[in-house]
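User: Show me sequence and structure for the first protein, then do the same for the second.

Assistant: Starting with the first protein.
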Amino acid sequence: MAGLPTPPDGVNPYLYYDSLIEGLVMPRTSPGFQVRLLVTFCLFLFFGIASLLAFTVHCVAQRRLGRQLWLIRVVRRDGGSFLVGNHLALIGAAGIVFPVVCCGAIWTTERFYIQRTEVHSITDWRLAIWAPSFVCGWAISWSSLHSYLHVVGDKTPRWMVKGGIFNFLNIFSIGGGTIITLLIIVLSVVGARTGHRVSDHYDAFHTFLEQAAASWQPGVEDQVTMARSNELSLSYGASVESYFVTFETLLSIHAAISVVIMIVTCGTLALVLILRRQIRMSLEDLKQTATRIEELGDSVAGPPTRRGASQQRWQAQVRKAARGEDVEGLHMEQARRIDDLRKVEKERIIICFILFTMSLLLFTQNVFTLVTLRDLGSSWPRTEFALTFTWWFSTVVASAGAIAHLWVEIRHFPPPRSSLSGDGSTSPSQKPTALQSLSQQIHIDIQVHTLQEIDSDEQEKERGRSGAGARLQPSSEKRARSVSFRESEEE
């Protein structure tokens, strides 16, 4: 048989080739492989349960706040209307779909390499991992990026709003993701069919070699049997070659996609850091509001300055609070927005860490598998590394991320509406939550700001009527931008 070593003299050639090919297809595993598979299986189950719990807590929190649950919706901005995905809903779906597919792949791997009973299904399950993992990673990474790019604030460059960059990114993410998903599905189907042909050819070849080995007699060469053996060997080799070509194409595509997802994730992380800076500026502004307003006093701060839309919205809230209509609602609303942004910041950092780490691991495994795939003489440690490297490390990363995500959801779980008393404080029998503590922290600042802001407006009107031609400097422009940022994020 071409490409195979010659058996020693006096050894049954058919039995020799049968054991040789079986060892290449299903090598003997090292001790502890079954235990490692079992631990990986349990970690995937834990990841799925933790993700489901985090998503459930998020749904309950949204219902408690009176918000609607959604997966994808249209968000209107100054530059047009855009599709934005709910990253928490997408993570919840990924936390259910991805562990199920991976647990199926682990189960068939155990049956194939340890029990040696499953041959056809291992190809289906391993190829089935590609499409769900890509869809989950692509959707989460791009929806996270869009959620930040679509926050149009006072400092957003005009080319981003009017230059069509949002439309281009939407087309690229949605259209490109759909095309790549279809390509992966088509190649996976082709690879699965090719894998079935490999299994069928192997079964036929294995059965023939067993029968020929049983009827072999030393010193007697059956030319018909040898010819049939060579024919089956060539057919099996051709099917394996076709399978390798398809599988290598899939590995190359997925390695390139992993790099794209890592780049998008890094872009999202950069925007998260910008958001963190905005939150810190917002908190610092709220703490120093009364001091800055009192320092302005009756002094003339310069020529009149045009107020932006975000400042006008803030002024409307201030006037409403000053009339005594909704003082408690104002400071609770500001506290809730800041708490929401803190929660989003933590969640995005966790998501970026998980996506980047898993994409990097997947890229490493793809490259390593491309090198190892055609080396039929590879040792079992190299084969096991190529098979389960991503499983081992990604389960640890995903499980840690799921625990952190669940902790963030519980940490920022909103209190019941009845837990606040009339003055915005908690009852003596209840422990203040993070949102209530933050609300009480900025309560005095907002009340002082309310009174001083109205006084400032009245002084401006008096100076305008007296022809002084000057008015007080408006409230901090940075605070107005941060309020605009928070309101845009809330939408």
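Switching to the second protein now.
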Amino acid sequence: MLESASVYVRGYPSTVTEVDLRRHFQGCGAISRIDLRADVGNGPFAYVDFDTVAAGKEAVVFKHNSFLHDGRLFVSYTENRMPPPLPPPAARSSDDDTNVVYVQQNPRHTTIDDFRAHFADCGTIEHISMRQPDAVFIEFADVAAAREAVRRKDGSMMQESRIRVRMSHKAKGRTTPPPPSSLPSPPPMVTIMQSPPTETPTVAGDPRSPWLFSYEKTLTTPSYLAGIPSDLEADLRQTTSWYIEDLGKKFNLPLIAVVTAQTYMNRFYMLHAFSTHDRFLVGAAALFLSAKTNECVIKLTDVAEKSLGLVDGGKSPTAGDLDLVKTKLRQYEVVLLNTLSYDVVVPQPFLALAALVDRAALEVDLPRSTILVVAEVFLKDAVAGTLALQLTMDELAAGALYLSCLAHSLDGWLRETTLFAHVHIDTVSHLLLGLYPKSRLPAKLQAAAK
């Protein structure tokens, strides 16, 4: 078949969502549309439509036989660019005579009000039951409204996901969802595979964390919606992270406190725009709050003085400037706490990395410090931006260690070891390499970045 900008994908489990596929193929090129389908005989499949033929070729070359949620993908060209959605069945069974619909493949961080607004034009909504994000039942005033919801909203985009809407098979009038044991498992939100846990800490890096965002969410941030280009926002995040690191050094704060502050800052700007909140005040307040969280004693006056010194090039601040900045820092500490919903304990990928490096050092003929120093470079750059908001700490640690070993020409060991079996390491390492222009990478890693 001739090369095409549209590819056919199958082989993934039924729990995979459009967001999962978009994340898996995002490194190949810009994606214009994904159409998820299901076939009784062959299981789920999808058409992924890229903007260019070159992107479609890269998907076939590099993603065929790759793994997605324990499934090995089959990827091939297709001549049909995004067939139209399947029409609704002509005949309806008695099970369809219900005023309740069941909504699947929902975006994360949605509320009952979001669903009410999305389905408001279908008819009068009597009740919405939302026990978990992927088990949402909407009860309409009549059967006609429920059928209209299926007709109009099945396959529609809700935030970053294309949702599925079906007539519910619940007993008519019952508004509570069936027992959890009878519902399908919610789809994994990141690339973690279903395998035994590793020795790295996992509680704070739980993939169900509300602070893990899809790739699309990290592109459509409040700053972007306020008119700040994505590349400029990435620079603002990175330089603000460096500012937090430099400020932390002035107080000799441990790495865990600095990483916590950088995470606070990056989470804050997923809900606020850089154009409306001074990034240096946010960064300094994040470090001040992080020091308290990690039981490090620093004075507010010292934070104000040293932060002003960094911003103003070392000039001595006036008493008026100090008082003003101290007042602002107190205010932003409260704003940060409210934005974070007082969720101040964050994942620590450097702890996860240290545990993985200890295990790797037992298997390779390289000093532990040699492996760790390169891995920490990758990890620091990931924490400075939004990639740390897309991947769990175990994924970040595994990807950083994998690239360090690859840079040290440990190819043979990488092919044989099971140390990275808990993540889709090809996907994670590709995302990490995407942080850098290809020309900046050593030759060994340039080949991996193809």
